[in-house]
Write a structure and sequence with these properties.
By secondary structure, this protein is mainly beta. 5% of the residues lie in helices and 40% in strands. The chain has one helix and twelve strands. The strands form four sheets. Strands 5, 6, 7, 8, 9 and 10 form a six-stranded antiparallel sheet that branches. A hairpin with a 5-residue loop joins β3 and β4. The radius of gyration is 23 Å and the shape is globular.
């Protein structure tokens, strides 16, 4: 979190706003880090290794991105829901279809039966079930046990 304090300016009684990080105004600002690099808690910047695609972290949106086009059933729970009859149980929305895109806070899913496209906030995402298996981050596609 960035905090601000007001300190005397270069001339007279003028004041300026200067950011600082942490508990007091005497700590240094952290170094800038280019994309793909890692910064440790001590402030050391570790450059990205290798070439090509960087290792993805196993966040849900990254897993959904790895499985674009894979058929599945997606479950979302909303605080209040205005959805079609037969598609809900309480405030649960169930969509059988494929992921078209996934972002940090949303997923775009195409429903198989109706061809409707939904833009859904990830905050309401519960889980997904992939009938044909799914691809996890940087691994081959897993198949369900039968």
């Amino acid at each position: 979190m960035t905090y601000y304090y007001w300190g005397p300016g270069a001339t007279g009684n003028q004041y300026y706003q200067q950011p600082f990080f942490g508990q007091g105004p005497f700590q240094q600002t952290p170094p800038s880090v280019s994309s793909g690099n890692v910064i440790t808690p001590s402030g050391t910047v570790i450059p990205a290794t290798g070439t090509g695609r960087q290792t993805e972290e196993s966040y849900i949106e990254n897993i959904l991105r790895e499985n674009i086009g894979v058929p599945g059933t997606f479950y979302f729970t909303f605080p209040s829901s205005d959805t079609r009859p037969g598609e809900t149980q309480g405030n649960v929305l169930r969509i059988r279809g494929t992921v078209m895109q996934a972002g940090r806070d949303h997923a775009v899913i195409r429903e198989a039966n109706t061809n409707y496209v939904y833009l859904l906030p990830m905050i309401y995402f519960d889980y997904a079930r992939f009938e044909e298996g799914f691809k996890y981050i940087n691994s081959p596609r897993t198949r369900p046990q039968r």
